Amino acid sequence: MLTLLKNARLHAPEPRGLCHLLIGDGRIAAIAAADDAGEPPAHGPAVTVVDLEGRRVIPGLVDPLVHFIGGGGEGGFGTRTPELALDEALTSGVTTLVGALGTDALTRTPANLLGKARELAAGGLTTYCYTGSYQLPPVTLTGSVAGDITFIPEFIGLGEVAISDHRGSQPSREELTRLAAETRTAGMLAGKGGIVFIHTGDAPGGLEPLREVARHSAIPLAQFLPTHVNRTAELFEDGLRFGREGGRIDFTTSTTPELLADGEVPAARAVARALEARIEPSRITLSSDANASLPRFDAEGRFAGLRPGRLASLFETLGECVEGHGVALDKAIGVASTHAADALGLPQKGRLHVGADADLLVLAEDAWSIDEVWARGRRVHRRA
């Protein structure tokens, strides 16, 4: 069966005007401008026709950090955060998710992570995972980072490795270099991105450990994707320098009033400021940190409370970029979808071109909200 989406005001992410999209086998088979002479690209009894009536259509969002199986535990077992529910994921606007372990790699394991990824994939989403953990040596399924990336389809990189954080293993330059090289090589062998996803804490040093790797090895800065770069004003400024030096920077969309009061730069504002600072847009991404704990610690590093991250915060931040900070929609889509897909080595995601996966959002006419979510060519959510 084929599906014809008629009269979509397409942002691919570049604006393409009113278009018809033909979907087959989960991918976009053809795109035609609606004002072209003649009929849409296909019609007949084997084609399901859906008229979108001029509503905006954008690529499904790509989230490079989701804690599928929950996180937390920094305040004891009673502070563990829950797993991501499929229903919540399907309505969020995120159609491609990458799962990671958090602080706890003892009671939560790569096997749990992989099983949950496959559960969400069975529900219609596209899911991947990072092998490894906050702490070193990294926990794996096959016994090595390279083995997991090479032999397990869902594992596309290493993460979330912690630097500049009191909960991490305080990795040396040599350890980070070896792991980055192993991840990079395995990604090449398996035809994957081989990204090293980095949790950045607010301790002194910031992103300097990654610069040290690049200075003393052949590993490029862009092999790393450091997140939480908006968590403090100091780290944000360090992130801008990192972006100018050729590195990627990822802003976290989930937040709390306490984090904002402590100096976190709201993610939409961080995007706008980074673009104003003329950081190359392709180096800027967003992630939700969904279902992770967003903990607070006192001046002596003692746990003071937490809230869970939210997957829906990614779409909300996209709207804040556009409606609150004047970021052009195509640029905002880039940071919420296209750039992460490129960093992760997923060229079929984050864009709506012929041959790309048919992951798309149909936006409401009268508000920043989602009317429909399509994942791999199938409508998985429709607002009542």
TrEMBL record:
<dbReference type="Pfam" id="PF01979">
    <property type="entry name" value="Amidohydro_1"/>
</dbReference>
<dbReference type="GO" id="GO:0004177">
    <property type="term" value="F:aminopeptidase activity"/>
</dbReference>
<comment type="function">
    <text>Catalyzes the hydrolytic cleavage of a subset of L-isoaspartyl (L-beta-aspartyl) dipeptides. Used to degrade proteins damaged by L-isoaspartyl residues formation.</text>
</comment>
<feature type="binding site">
    <location>
        <position position="67"/>
    </location>
    <ligand>
        <name>Zn(2+) 1</name>
    </ligand>
</feature>
<dbReference type="InterPro" id="IPR006680">
    <property type="entry name" value="Amidohydro-rel"/>
</dbReference>
<keyword id="KW-0378">Hydrolase</keyword>
<feature type="binding site">
    <location>
        <position position="134"/>
    </location>
    <ligand>
        <name>substrate</name>
    </ligand>
</feature>
<feature type="binding site">
    <location>
        <begin position="72"/>
        <end position="74"/>
    </location>
    <ligand>
        <name>substrate</name>
    </ligand>
</feature>
<comment type="similarity">
    <text>Belongs to the peptidase M38 family.</text>
</comment>
<feature type="binding site">
    <location>
        <position position="293"/>
    </location>
    <ligand>
        <name>substrate</name>
    </ligand>
</feature>
<keyword id="KW-0482">Metalloprotease</keyword>
<feature type="binding site">
    <location>
        <position position="289"/>
    </location>
    <ligand>
        <name>Zn(2+) 1</name>
    </ligand>
</feature>
<dbReference type="GO" id="GO:0008237">
    <property type="term" value="F:metallopeptidase activity"/>
</dbReference>
<keyword id="KW-0645">Protease</keyword>
<protein>
    <recommendedName>
        <fullName>Isoaspartyl dipeptidase</fullName>
        <ecNumber>3.4.19.-</ecNumber>
    </recommendedName>
</protein>
<dbReference type="GO" id="GO:0046872">
    <property type="term" value="F:metal ion binding"/>
</dbReference>
<dbReference type="GO" id="GO:0005737">
    <property type="term" value="C:cytoplasm"/>
</dbReference>
<feature type="binding site">
    <location>
        <position position="199"/>
    </location>
    <ligand>
        <name>Zn(2+) 2</name>
    </ligand>
</feature>
<dbReference type="InterPro" id="IPR032466">
    <property type="entry name" value="Metal_Hydrolase"/>
</dbReference>
<feature type="active site" description="Proton acceptor">
    <location>
        <position position="289"/>
    </location>
</feature>
<keyword id="KW-0031">Aminopeptidase</keyword>
<keyword id="KW-0479">Metal-binding</keyword>
<dbReference type="GO" id="GO:0006508">
    <property type="term" value="P:proteolysis"/>
</dbReference>
<dbReference type="InterPro" id="IPR050378">
    <property type="entry name" value="Metallo-dep_Hydrolases_sf"/>
</dbReference>
<feature type="binding site">
    <location>
        <position position="231"/>
    </location>
    <ligand>
        <name>substrate</name>
    </ligand>
</feature>
<feature type="binding site">
    <location>
        <position position="228"/>
    </location>
    <ligand>
        <name>Zn(2+) 2</name>
    </ligand>
</feature>
<feature type="domain" description="Amidohydrolase-related">
    <location>
        <begin position="269"/>
        <end position="379"/>
    </location>
</feature>
<dbReference type="GO" id="GO:0008798">
    <property type="term" value="F:beta-aspartyl-peptidase activity"/>
</dbReference>
<dbReference type="InterPro" id="IPR011059">
    <property type="entry name" value="Metal-dep_hydrolase_composite"/>
</dbReference>
<feature type="binding site">
    <location>
        <position position="103"/>
    </location>
    <ligand>
        <name>substrate</name>
    </ligand>
</feature>
<feature type="binding site">
    <location>
        <position position="167"/>
    </location>
    <ligand>
        <name>substrate</name>
    </ligand>
</feature>
<dbReference type="InterPro" id="IPR010229">
    <property type="entry name" value="Pept_M38_dipep"/>
</dbReference>
<dbReference type="GO" id="GO:0016810">
    <property type="term" value="F:hydrolase activity, acting on carbon-nitrogen (but not peptide) bonds"/>
</dbReference>
<keyword id="KW-0862">Zinc</keyword>
